[in-house]
Amino acid sequence: MSDTAAGPIAAWRAANLRRATLSLIGGALLLVSFSADVATGPAMLPISAVLRSLTGLGADPMLDAIVYNLRLPIALMAVVVGATLGVSGAIMQTILNNPLASSYTLGISAGAGFGAALAILVGGALPLPENWAIPLAAFVFAGVACAIVGSVGRMRGATPELLVLAGIACLFLFQALLSLLQFLASPEALQQIVFWLFGSLLRASMGKAAIVAGVLAVALPLLLKDAWRLTALKLGDERARALGVHVNRLRLRAFVIVSLLTGAAVAFVGTIGFVGLVAPHIARMTVGEDQRHMLPASAVFGALLLSLASLASKLIMPGTVFPIGIITALIGVPFFGWLVLTTGRVQ
Amino acid sequence: MILQAHNVSVRYGSRVAVSNVDLEARPGEVLALLGANGSGKTSLMRALAALQAHSGTIVWDSGRPPPGSIGYMPQDNGARAALTAFEVVLLGRMRTLGLRVGAADLAAAKAAMDEIGISDLAARHIGELSGGQRQMVLIAQVLAGNPRALLLDEPTSALDIAHQLHVLDLLRTATRQRGLTTIAILHDLNAAARFADRVALMTMGRLAGIGAPADILQPVTLEPTFDVHVAVDLGSDGHPVVLPLRARRL
Predict the structure, then answer these.
(1) Average pLDDT of the residues in A269-280
(2) Mutating which of B12, B91, B138, B154 best tests the A interface, going by the most A Cβ atoms within 10 A?
(3) What angle do the packed helices A108-122 and A160-184 form, to 10 degrees?
(4) Contact B122 A347 (CB under 8 A)
(5) Homologous superfamily of domain range A73-343
């Protein structure tokens, strides 16, 4: 007997159970990847020892020091930033009705890059230590980019096309400003700017990971509250309006939340591409576009992708940690191509 | 709900899409909105659904329609989404849906699919369905919301003859039994003659005539509206039958 023959409600409940199971499998894979990420480094640690240390059952101070001071902040940062980029990518693709939408499309990453470069250039003149001044400036300018795009949206009805066009304009503006800063920068500052733009987890700390996790913990429930309205957007603006959705208000509200998410993520780790693009596609193919399932799944798969990338960045050339932005792009491009060519279901 | 529209106009910049339309519709009645392409039917319907800025007054019963009381079905835009037909129908219950979906919402979605006869499509993705199947899913979505008025923009344009008859009969029965106020934009004049209690004919944004199908579907009104020569006969069931002969300008 087919699912539908058992009745639409039973079939739908079975599909929901299947989706939840697939997300849980993704979560289990994330745990494995996370543990391997913590275990991997110049000193390879046995997974069992890592698990003992993480659960507080270990009694090796040296091991605990490596795990808690060096490995855990980076591994946790990969998970929370990956989850954040996954959720923000999913929402952007939904509200812009564009499968290629991401923080790049709207110029948010470019804004953050310009902010970071500015902080690097004027570094000593700021009242904050550089360690915090750069992410703060990146976050502020990610916000400026969002404000520009959002203002245009507010003025002219917040249609997806308009937001994408405003985002592209914003992207070119901040790229031009960034190029100007790079042109003016000293060789040392230029090197630092370029390194930031690669994206890196090496400056992670537990405090920074907690900030990103906190932003995600606030944003995700707010987005889930709008889950059905966001799902309705997938049927087109007119039909969503017919269903009673205030489309422009919803789009701007989701845009502001996602901008904060993206700003928080890129501020600490730099521009990391493809996670925000690929994770929602994997989630969509796995659990469909009911946003109640798709948003958590995008978080899980985004976290998994960045955790795997973090692991790969340490394994490619032993003793060297590759900038993670390069890894995600190198893995992401062929992976995305494979997804498109083999499934044909990428919307 | 009783609809009373008075002196309704819709403008897009300097272009007037709907001009000074007066319209009334009553519960239990089906009104078919007819007219050539670009005659302002969709703009008028969007205004009636409170989705289009307009001048003039539109009153449902004694004021604004309560939230969820109008089931508006726009033309199918072919949007693709990784959503099953059941989920699309469930969206018709938007106002009561929460993170946990209640039994009443599930039952209403199932009942609407059963009513249209598309329960076998429930688990299929909307993007995999034919145009006609999609249209029936979207009609079920509108019915699932238990509206008091139906505004349907070309609800049967992609359906074959059998499904067209089935869906139009079903909508007419629902209109009678539930006391709905139903307005449907149709291009099939003969379907309108069979299905509607009254028809309204629009020409260049104006209402060219409104009344019983037998009174309005006449060569004298249809020929200038559609720019076509027609012959009108009376069918065996008493409804007018319109036979297009040739375009007037060719």
Answers:
(1) 87
(2) B91
(3) 20
(4) no
(5) ABC transporter involved in vitamin B12 uptake, BtuC (1.10.3470.10)
